[in-house]
Amino acid sequence: MLKKLKQSQFPERNLVIILVLLIVVLSIASNRFLSYNNIMNLLRQTSIIGVIAVGMTFVIISAGIDLSVGSVLAFSSIIVAMLMKAGVPIPLSIIVALLAGTSLGVLMGILIHNGSVPAFIATLGGMTMVRGAVMLISGARKISGLPPEFKHFAVAKFLGIPGMVWVWFLVIIIGFVIAKYTIFGRNVYAIGSNEEAARLSGIKIGTNIYGIYAFCAFTSSIAGILMTTRLGNGVPTSGTGYELDVIAAVVVGGASLSGAVGSILGTVLGTIIIATIRNGGNLLGINPFILDILVGGLIVFAVLFDQLNKKNNR
Amino acid sequence: MKKITLLLVILAMMVIPVFAGGQQEAAAADGATEIALIIKATDSGFWQKVIEGGKAFDADNADVNVTVYGPASEADIEEAIGILENVVESGPDAIVIATNAGEGAVPAVENALSQGIPVITVDTKIPTDVTSHLATDNVLGGKLAAQAMVEFFEEYGIEKKGTVAIVAAVAGVDTIIERDGGFIDELKVLAPEVTILDPRYVDNDIAKSMTTAEDLITTYDDLIGIYADNNHTGDGVALAIEQAELQDEVMVVAFDDDEDEIIALQNGVIKTLIIQDQFNMGYSGCAYAMKALAGEDLPSFVDTGVKVTKKEDL
């Protein structure tokens, strides 16, 4: 009884246990795991996927899906790089890239709501079209020669933590507040639970759907800018395949693809768990293909475990 | 109904110019010898130089028309095969091709050969008899890389005892296997006490090669060298070494010469670049195609050569 109560009050409990176990095992297996440098590596490597995962959480809670995140990342990366190369000031370049990326999300929201195109199809088409546009405007070439101040952001540290990790933390906090304390956040859960019921109770579905996909595209655009500072280049093929990594992180974090279930905290834990497995595997020199099997298994078991729990509680 | 008609009209308006454009191009090329130049990826500076070589041959020969094809990323093997099949179907006079598809490219290439279309492979072999193969001697290139690394161990007073890592572009491709094999064999002879790690494969992704290099730096205290076996791995490794400020402790030797690698060479982050003659691959590839069409007997392998380039050689 006590066990069940705890589980329902704190659904992320299992994730915390898994993460703690992982950390204990890895710190015993490798004396480097808990070193400052490795933790910073781990956080830096996680932050790009982590930022998008926050946006994706809202999409998945609303019972939607967004496959275009990797392409939107590349789009914002190319735009910010091309603008800076053309001599546009850095802050303005970033703002324009964020706006351009976010507007793609609005377009997909309109397609999904007003056009009644299923989210999977709308964003699948969006993924392909945006990637094509990125290749076209960049000539499928890297854009290099960016201002050093911009590239410096990837290595710059504040209170010992890299700048890009701070950005991730900030996005987490924003996501957490929106999900928990705003009407929009509650609407997202309501829509994911039952869109028709949400509409009947007076929620404006359209505005909320635009908001959800716009926010996801916004986080993808932030990730694109982080990727550009990390690589020191605008790379048109960057972010390829990220949609699946991001969805995996959100699902491991306990969100349900059928909507209404999920949390930002869960997503953050899911993201860190997957990244920790990969990082630990690298430290211990484990064959990367075995790591793929482990991560794939984790995704399936996270959901399986959830389903079994639900059955037991019935 | 009206809406559907309208949609169809709009769609037709979008599609017709595309086809019309294609036909014009085909008409303009009438009478000229059509050479299809198929490259591995459009996103990398390396292949852009192969394209430059092909275009230069086009410009030098009024009766030759060189058309370039290729997927965006080297990892898109499936797409590369599709492109090759389409090119063979379009019936050019000769094909000059670099592909990672290996066995997968064989049916289409044999189909072309059986139609009397000469096929010249550049850079990477495919497992069938083609008209001629022009490439870098990759085993030799790998050996030269090992020699360069050992020279720098001596120059920096590093004992030939620690760990040397290989960051490899893709798994299962002959070019890469030969480069790594040549490097490993030569390093074993020149520095027998060095531990050489198994190659870490990074899907030719700059972000992944950077992450891998960061993890290698954290894991191995006695890391004294990293060998990056193409341009994207070179870019990623250079970023990681630069950020960790380890250019005096870890000797980096890389293949190829894209813009960022040259900058890293100037900054002393990469110690030596093994530079292939890509322009020559594109130019001579087309020249050999013309020879084949003229009925000349061609050697089965032509070495296009490498240049061992240090900072002072720039």
UniProtKB/TrEMBL annotation, chain A:
Q: Does the keyword Transcription regulation apply?
A: no
**What's an example GO cellular component term for this entry?**
plasma membrane
| InterPro entries in the cross-refs | ABC_transp_permease
Q: How does it sit in the membrane?
A: Multi-pass membrane protein
Q: Where in the cell is it found?
A: Cell membrane
- Keywords, comma-separated and alphabetical: Cell membrane, Membrane, Transmembrane, Transmembrane helix
Alphabetically, the GO molecular function entries are: transmembrane transporter activity
Please give the start and end residues of each transmembrane region. Answer: 15-34, 46-65, 95-113, 119-137, 158-179, 210-232, 244-277, 283-305
CDD domains associated with the record: TM_PBP1_transp_AraH_like
- Spell out the Pfam families in the cross-references: BPD_transp_2
The protein in question is named ABC transporter permease
Name the species this protein comes from. Candidatus Thalassospirochaeta sargassi
From TrEMBL, chain B:
Q: Which GO terms describe its molecular function?
A: carbohydrate binding
Keyword vocabulary terms for this entry: Signal
The residue range of the signal peptide is 1-20
**Cellular localization per UniProt:** Cell envelope
The reply to whether Signal figures as a keyword in the UniProt entry is yes
Report the residue ranges that make up the Periplasmic binding protein domain in this protein: 35-296
- Record GO cellular component, one term: cell envelope
Assigned protein family: Belongs to the bacterial solute-binding protein 2 family.
Instruction: Please report the name of this protein according to its UniProt entry.
Output: Substrate-binding domain-containing protein
Q: Which organism is it from?
A: Candidatus Thalassospirochaeta sargassi
